[in-house]
Batch of 2 targets.
Target 1
Amino acid sequence: MTRSPANSGALCAVLLALSVALPFVAPGYYVQFASKALLMAMLALSLNLVVGFGGLVSLCHAAFFGLAGYVLGFLTPEGSGASIWIALPAALLAVGSVAAVIGALSLRTRGIYFIMVTLAFGEMLFYLFHDTKIGGGSDGLYIYFKPEFTLGALTLIDLEDATAFYYIALVALVGAALLVRALVRSPFGHALVAARENERRALSLGFPVFRIRLTAFVISAMIAAVAGFFSAAQFGFVAPQMLGWHLSASVLVMVVLGGMSSILGPIVGAIALLGLEEVLKSSVEHWKLLKGLIVIALVFALPGGLQQLAAMLAPRRTGDGRDSDVPTQAPARVKEAITHV
Amino acid sequence: MDAITFAVQLLNGVQYGLVLFLVASGLTLVFGILGVINLAHGAFYMLGAYLAWAIASQTGSFTLALIGALAISFLMGILLEEIFVKRMIGRDHLAQVLLSFGLILVIDELRQIAFGKDVHAVAPPSWLAGSIQLTDVLSYPVYRLALCVACLGLAAAIFYVIQKTRLGMVIRAGAENRDMTRALGVPFDLVNRYVFAGGIALAALAGILVAPISTVFPGMGDGMLILSFVVVVLGGIGSVPGAAIGALLLGLTDTFGKVFFPQVSSILIYVLMAGVLLWRPNGLLGKA
């Protein structure tokens, strides 16, 4: 790919400025939609840590997302909101522990097995909430009050206010992006990518591959949990469908659509896919048919996602003909993953 | 639990396991031979059931429904292989996951356009209706018994084809070493096509056969997909005997789990899967 770090930085700055300005120029509906998109972008970002940098195609991230929502639902009292100081750490702790168990079991397997096992464990959580009375069964659970962000008697931020909520979502996403960037640039991140490229070599170099992957998996799940926590707060509702594998697969589409070898890619992919869905939903009755066709087209025509499209449209700067290459060649990807995030 | 209830549950568990085997054997063959992971496998289970319902409700004949739905599914398998799957061989798993997810969305929406989203029931053929007295005190629905026999016959046929025929030899060789088999001049594109279409047909067949004892509903493929993944994980990828063992294990665990531990039965099979993974990460008969 051709995007240089400077370009990427400029793009980030523009996107950030646009998102900060959004509530001042857009009507309320779009602010709420944007909040939702930011939280989904956070989920895609979290998934990309394991899929893009770790090479581990996880199909259970929706389960972590939804589980955090359920924790918020359980901790929200009858007549008021839950304290964010208790509910958010509780959600992180719960999801982190579940992810540690699922990760420890799934990471004993490789490749295709990993996909199937994560899918199966994700569905286990789905059925746990769907088939039992926990959390209202298939009807789900209403969260009538948003969590309270207070210090003593002082309300720091009123999450019931849509604009304030939007900024919280934005701060959470930016924080998560900075965290993932720091992780990927650290020796830990380099080891994660090295294990993706050549597991045997990474092992023989003395990297504790299993532990590195498990750590990445758990951190990724906890970022997904933050997204799920705020999503459940925003919808005021959590249902088993939030844990189902269709959502996991959709998030995977977001990651691939935006491009896997960057931090910004999944965020752009999530916003692009949600925006597209929003347009399709309002104009086409059978929009899922179109979504399916778009996903199929993505696989065949644009395996490198929107980054590939941008690279194809951008004027060629080097003459080596690599510009339009699908960014899946291993050496190029390592380099990118390490330097071009 | 008395002996009668036990016997009935045992029959139910075996029958469930046999149906699971039909779906999972197709899945594991397609993966073993083509190296393609197909999340849309469950969608064909659902489609088989819907096609059977549509034909049966038009013609009133279950036999016609069986033949028609099976033929349509097989042809769809051929068509899909030609248009999509052929191009996915050798691509990374992520691309295959995404393609089959896209296919699920398309198939599901087309199904809704064609058949709606209502829940339907299919009547078993009249000569298989009613119950039969197995012993003085034990009676069992004839259709369920016939289903067991049919699935056993199909399982035997699958094993015969794979173990004894020339086609089976090629399939086994392909699962063992794709490049070497191709180099020896086996017309692999043809084998791939029929293995894929056959796998799809097996999933659809399971859906058709189950339709009279279950209901036909939109999400039925999803549940079956996950279960057949668990079966494949239990048995080991690409291993048909492994799929058979995994399917029976899962069928019995699920059935007896519902009787003995109704509270936790829905997660019992995943506990089983976790146990097997701890012991053998590549499945019971999987290669290391």
Target 2
Amino acid sequence: MRREPRWLPVLRVTALGALGVFTVLPLYVMAITALKPLDDVRDGFAWWPSRLTWEAFGTMWSTVDLAEYFVNSGVVAVSSAALSVFIAVPAAYAVSRYRFPGRDLFRAAVLSTQMLPGILFLLPLYLIYASIGQLTGILLQGNQVGLIITYLTFSLPFSIWMLVGYFDTVPAELDEAAVIDGTGALGALLRVVLPAAKPGVAAVAIYAFMTAWGETLFASVMTNAGSRTLAVGLREYSTESSVYWNEVMAASLTVSFPVVVGFLLLQRYLVRGLTAGALR
Amino acid sequence: MTTSVPCGRSVPYLLLAPALVFEILVHLLPMLGGLWMSLHELNQFFVRDWTSAPFAGLDNYRFAVDFDGAVGAELLRSFAVTAAFSALTVAFSFGLGLVAATLLQRPFRGRFLVRGLFLVPYALPVYTAVLVWKFMLDRGDGAVNSALRGLGWGGGEFWLLGQNAFLSLVVTAVWRLWPFAFLALMAGLQSIPAELYDAAEVDGAGPGQRFRLITLPMLRPVARVLVLVLFLWTFNDFTVPYVLFDQSVPSAANLVSVHVYQSSFLTWNFGLGAAMSTLLLLFLLVVVALFLALTSRSRRAA
């Protein structure tokens, strides 16, 4: 191990400590507020509750339809992640393994749609869905289907982009051998490349899930009382007279828990995917 | 990478077909639709039957960039606010991410714990991350003011109003975004071969020199993409201001995305909103092209 001058550990502890405090304080506030009784959050902020209670974690389900929003968000996030992976895997495989006319155009299109503002797609999609509803009777607004398709606007380019990078790291000799053994392109993808790139697929899926789980702009315009997702539903804890901050924070913790755990478990693969795909 | 394996010429296109169909549905059609909308007088009278909206030529654009008029002035203002917000947030996120990634390179006990902890703000759903800041900055007696008073710095200001709102916006965005910079820069640092550092040390380079002469230049490709991505995310940010301030975003913190959203959905002027988003798109394209051109030149020069 390399030697280091004496000031370096001091600098390290100080800087990491400061960053740690900056990172943890809001998380602490979130947790401590969730454990407060309602009377406590009505007054000024206190760093310690008058008594610790799990009340908010119980009452939050009846103040707003949290369970329903949970289910709605789950349906939308799981479906859009699954759909996005399902569509992106073959496309990324084609881009990674074959040279064909239009390949560079496709790559460039995927890259550039990645960086377009969501607001750009919101207005036209809103009207297009409305028209489809009027013309065909197929409702895409106010239910989950419209939102699931809409979320492909950002999860699809990202998934393709990352997966191309991942598939590139799988040696082509492996699937060449599989094709020679007679499995065909699809067989090589399913039996050889996909298993080898499994962590990448998982990372892409969790990322698509996370973005859908946290999305606010489209959700606030395209949902109604029956299809509201968590991003919109959590706002209902604010009433005209007061905000149930303890319940907001309890709900925030509950909503965050699954994605934070999933992200921390898979972040190593996400990093590898970023270096392989995005940061090339 | 290309397989030498013979395959039907249609195979790659068959694999691409689902992606193409959905790309057309969610990207191409809305973009064409947006362009069409921006050229039409699409307001509350025509929303129900939008295809019959009268052609307006470039009127919506003229309206949006008429900086003497109320609409144009407000758009210009929100553009300036967004540029400042974006620049500050990218700079701080990058800086904090670089410091953390560098200091966590060397193994020590608890390193993985610290690393996981730093990533939590980014892993949180955006609106929950913003909600907790809203709560902390809320009112005169929120957590931030209570902490400031505890430190003897006064405190009692309303952070979500007026000029302070901009500061609140930046702090919240940095808190949520710097872990991503940390994650990406950590990946970049790990790809630098250790031999480079060993060789530099043999040559007598101190830690400061090693950082300046090896780490920074080797990080350049990662940094380039990272800055670009951070810029686009912050410039297009909607959730942070929308959740932090609800419907009434103070003009000091009125980002372009929110501004377009409000012009479209609160006043039902979709044509104008579409023109504004087209202008936003053009602006981003120019900035990205300039950025890529500049950074690739400096890379060749280096």
